[in-house]
């Protein structure tokens, strides 16, 4: 690994300013360097919230003895060729050549490094611009230690966050690296106490290390086929694992954890479609790979914001990848525990709804059925709503739009008028023609034939409200609202209608939730019932999902 000084005309191109303003910045830059060195084992140590000590030890490539004196020099790097075009195709996490220099300016830098093929190691001590290099002995790899951070900068030291706050941020940062680089060994030690340890595994194992095994048991693998150099892989949570905030939606671009643009977060949520109720967000860890020239990591001092050449295209690929992952799994949710939460069980590999035998009707709203060795509880309203929604979706464009005998004049709010101008062509494509009549009025000319004869009160008004509402997908919002009104309600259910609902679910493409995101079914295994009743008899055997799982071993 040969280090060279970047010419001034190159350093100016990347002068976004890599400034160490807190211990978190030191941890980030040193971990990036370890990853760029090809390390498979990275250990982070923090003392005093990082102000007393930050140390990152790795088993990467190391720095050759003839280049190590340049390591703490500003704009000295082995990661970027000294030519202008190299700035447009960055392929490493670090590239400015400022990380070690900035750490030496803010604290006392100590570096020990040795390439595996080199006899003897090099030791560098740097404080400000004073650099000392000597020979030493050490294992292959690199250990970088930064002590007494900001001791020579009292104004900056006084504005630092309390140690507990900084440790929390550092733990979260290392956790994100674990999530996006799960195949490495990671260890975070705080004041001599191990806070986070991760052995090499896959994304599910990384979720277990960071968020616990319960979350890991509720994630699905995402592996989208590459389109050119664009690739999406990782995990996304099942619909029942959600949060009110988006703080567990994690993205990386070419291995770099990023602050995701809203378009990517929105793409994941839209990939769930009606599986996800409004106002909540899933857990996801998605690694995006793009061509080096199609992204720019040099738009933020900490390089956490990445500009993408084709953000809409990447978002569309993310949305499709999430949808494909969800479609490949049965998404029936576990019934509430009778005594204690049941142990997680593997779901069957089939993605379709099983054939169920009706056992009975409860409270004229819920169906009790059995199938695959389990007891299923079906919300008849939600299930019927799902079936109606999919039928309307299939029929929406099957026939020409229905022309109203007399166009209907409608009053619109200013927001609805603005959305009409934005969406008019989209609405017309599936048969809904609304013309701006001026002065807050609009004229309804045609309706999709599948909707025109629905027995829904205030049909036209409901269609307009949904089509011109704030939903990003007006078509889905219209159909979801119109499927709800005629669906079976409490008190309308009997055995005959129950059989019809179960049959309708078996032909649904996505039978696991209603169009608004509520589950259609809950599932309870015989084993859970037996354990709840304290049974240990012959009936307490592997059944249902266990049988399916065992048959694949």
From TrEMBL:
Q: Which domain of life is it from?
A: Bacteria
Q: Where is the DNA mismatch repair protein S5 domain?
A: 207-327
**MutL C-terminal dimerisation domain location:** 358-494
Cited InterPro entries: DNA_mismatch_repair_CS, DNA_mismatch_repair_MutL, DNA_mismatch_S5_2-like, HATPase_C_sf, HATPase_dom, MutL/Mlh/PMS, MutL/Mlh/Pms-like, MutL_C
Q: Which SUPFAM superfamilies match?
A: ATPase domain of HSP90 chaperone/DNA topoisomerase II/histidine kinase, DNA mismatch repair protein MutL, Ribosomal protein S5 domain 2-like
Kindly give the Pfam families that the UniProt entry links to this protein: DNA_mis_repair, HATPase_c, MutL_C
Q: Which SMART domains match?
A: DNA_mis_repair, MutL_C
Alphabetized, the UniProt keywords read: DNA damage, DNA repair
Record-linked NCBIfam families: mutl
| Family as reported in the entry's similarity comment | Belongs to the DNA mismatch repair MutL/HexB family.
Query: Function, please?
Result: This protein is involved in the repair of mismatches in DNA. It is required for dam-dependent methyl-directed DNA mismatch repair. May act as a 'molecular matchmaker', a protein that promotes the formation of a stable complex between two or more DNA-binding proteins in an ATP-dependent manner without itself being part of a final effector complex.
Q: What is the protein named?
A: DNA mismatch repair protein MutL
Name of the encoding gene: mutL
């Amino acid at each position: 690994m040969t280090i060279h000084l970047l010419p001034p005309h190159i350093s100016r191109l990347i002068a976004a300013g890599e400034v160490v303003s807190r211990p978190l910045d030191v941890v980030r830059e040193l971990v990036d360097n370890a990853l760029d060195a090809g390390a498979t084992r990275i250990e982070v140590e923090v003392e005093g919230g990082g102000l007393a000590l930050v140390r990152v030890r790795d088993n990467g490539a190391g720095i050759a003895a003839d280049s190590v004196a340049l390591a703490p020099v500003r704009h000295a790097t082995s990661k970027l060729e000294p030519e202008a075009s190299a700035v447009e195709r960055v392929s490493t996490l670090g590239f400015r050549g400022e990380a070690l220099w900035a750490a030496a300016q803010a604290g006392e830098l100590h570096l020990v490094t040795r390439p595996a093929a080199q006899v003897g190691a090099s030791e560098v001590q740097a404080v400000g611009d004073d650099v000392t290099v000597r020979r030493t002995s050490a294992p292959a790899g690199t250990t970088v230690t930064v002590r007494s951070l900001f001791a020579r900068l009292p104004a900056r030291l006084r504005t630092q966050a309390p140690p507990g706050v900084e440790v929390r941020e550092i733990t979260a940062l290392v956790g994100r690296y674990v999530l996006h680089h799960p195949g490495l060994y990671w260890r975070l030690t705080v004041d001599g106490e191990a806070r986070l340890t991760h052995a090499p595994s896959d994304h599910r194992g990384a979720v277990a290390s960071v968020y616990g095994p319960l979350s890991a048991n509720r994630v699905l693998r995402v592996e989208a086929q590459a389109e050119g150099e664009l690739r999406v892989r990782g995990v996304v949570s099942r619909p029942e694992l959600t949060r009110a905030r988006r703080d567990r939606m994690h993205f990386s671009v070419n291995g770099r954890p990023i602050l995701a643009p809203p378009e990517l977060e929105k793409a994941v949520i839209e990939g769930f479609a009606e599986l996800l109720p409004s106002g909540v967000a899933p857990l996801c860890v998605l690694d995006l790979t793009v061509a080096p020239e199609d992204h720019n990591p040099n738009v933020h001092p900490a390089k956490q914001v990445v500009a993408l050449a084709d953000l809409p295209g990447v978002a569309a690929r993310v949305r499709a990848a999430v949808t494909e992952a969800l479609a490949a799994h049965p998404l029936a949710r576990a019934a509430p525990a009778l005594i204690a939460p049941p142990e997680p069980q593997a779901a069957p590999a089939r993605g379709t709804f099983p054939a169920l035998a009706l056992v009975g009707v409860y409270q004229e709203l819920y169906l009790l059925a059995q199938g695959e060795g389990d007891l299923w509880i079906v919300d008849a309203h939600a299930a019927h709503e799902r079936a109606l929604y999919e039928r309307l979706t299939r029929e929406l464009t099957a026939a020409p739009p229905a022309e109203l005998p007399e166009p209907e004049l409608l009053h619109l709010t200013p927001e609805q008028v603005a959305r009409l101008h934005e969406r008019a062509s989209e609405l017309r494509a599936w048969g809904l023609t609304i013309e701006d009549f001026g002065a807050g009025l609009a004229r309804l000319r045609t309706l999709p034939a599948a909707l025109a004869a629905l027995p829904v009160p205030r049909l036209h008004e409901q269609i307009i409200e949904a089509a011109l509402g704030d939903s990003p997908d007006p078509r889905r919002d219209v159909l979801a609202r119109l499927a709800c009104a005629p669906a079976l309600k409490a008190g309308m259910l009997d055995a005959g209608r129950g059989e019809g609902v179960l049959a309708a679910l078996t032909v649904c493409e996505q039978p696991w939730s209603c169009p608004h995101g509520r589950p259609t079914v809950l599932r309870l295994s015989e084993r859970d019932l037996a354990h709840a009743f304290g049974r240990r008899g012959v009936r307490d055997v592997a059944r249902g999902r266990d049988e399916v799982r065992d048959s694949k071993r």
